[in-house]
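INFO batch 0412 | record 1 of 1 | parsing
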Amino acid sequence: MAKISKSENSENVLEINDLTVRLPKGADRENAIMDVSITIGRGEIVCIVGESGSGKSVTAQTVMGLNPPDQLSPTAGSVHLNDESILGVSQDRLRQLRGERMAMIFQEPMTALNPVMTVGDQIEEMLEIHTTFSASERREKVLEVMEDVNLPDPKKMADSYPHQLSGGQRQRIMIAIALALEPGLLIADEPTTALDVTTQAQILDLIKDIQVRHGTAVMFITHDFGVVAEIADRVVVMRNGRVVEQGTVDHVLSKSKEPYTRMLISSVPSLTPPKREPIIKGDPILQTRALDKIYGSLGLFGKGRVVHAASQVELEVRRGETLGVVGESGSGKSTVARCIVRLVDPNGGEILIDGNNIAGLSQKGIRSFRKDVQIVFQDPYRSLNPRRTVGQSIVEGPMNFNVGKVEALERARELMRVVGLSPDALDRFPHQFSGGQRQRICIARALAMEPEILIADEAVSALDVSVQAQVLELLDQVRKDFDLAVLFITHDLRVAAQICDRIMVMKLGEVVEQGPTASVYADPQHEYTKLLLDAAPGRDVDFSGAASI
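INFO prediction complete | emitting tokens
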């Protein structure tokens, strides 16, 4: 593999040459990464792209010195940060380099931030460790970097705790911590994957702005070529621990000759809805009428926080139809889904399943309707019991509804075939499967109940783009095969375009627009819908031609 030299008129901040990192004995391959060579120049954004297991994060964590040495140890190659070799340096020197000369933003800020410290204190902690600033100087610098990442009212927000901030604000705090000492290298490991589309656009704009203003070298790890098109100067494509291709973003997106790269690019869902077979009209199997859900209470002395999570929500879905519910975090999408499944109790309105109102039923009264409505959640690993085989998880539901063990097991074997897995895998445990396979198992478990309504709540948002495409195809196929009514909840407008017959747009608990998917995408009527569509990363790039290059 030919190495890419540093950018013209730009010194290399990071140089990785022929880096190999060994995996522990018994792993599925000998090395996590092998012969990896990457350079990043000052003021340059290099996107590292690949599926889960490709070695992206191992590469980044090796640079930061964050890999456990007894499990992931470099066995060959070199890493230089501003001409200083950093493989094998002492832990004290690594701690000094982290923050001062390199910093990292992680995917999930809620797990990266300390829940019992204010965000201001967490930024200040970096300054206290690495500088000789006085307390007043540290406070001034904290407010300065918070303002630098466009956080509102820094003085007030500095005294807030992580749980009091939105996901986008927490990610900005992580960026503020990383930038506090103005490091030359910023590593961003999937920093926008869990964010809704408008917040994602803001974070991408912020990182580009920081790159320009500070001349920061950025290693941006992602599996989303929409993000790559939006932010990258150069692209490095990794697969199974090796670099398979690298070059300028224009070259990789439009002139790539590597089949794996073309497959990843062509897997990006199009924002143009495909032509779908018209749904035969009939009575809706699922309806909500004036559905309301309020969280919180007035508390003592009439004070407290009340959130109207769903307000007068009206929807209907017919057999064989997919209704997409889209909107930002906090729009009420998942609340509506949880009310329909009766995981939470609505405060008002009706939920009609085949004409039967289940909104006011007790938990005992709702039991007979449980099998009719099944839900697939975002994180399949948390949805499956790690101590039970996947076969036990699939047969549990039917057996609770008086299906015999032999029949339930045979149903489970058939459903494993339906979702593209071997029936022989029923005796394996969840951790023995990939993320995409676990999500297929969750779909099989839901179908085992022979439901009439399937709810997918962000069911593909945590998956690689190629695996996502496979699961979307599977969901659409089971909708046809089982004549299901599907409620598909997502913040990804590209995904919704490909699978939904109709779209319902929610904002702050209210439905602001709904209609046929093709009509809403071609001519959105509400300003909020226009904002969501405009914020989709790489919206002006046609990824569909990659497979034919």
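INFO post-check: The first strand starts at residue 12 and ends at 22.
INFO record closed
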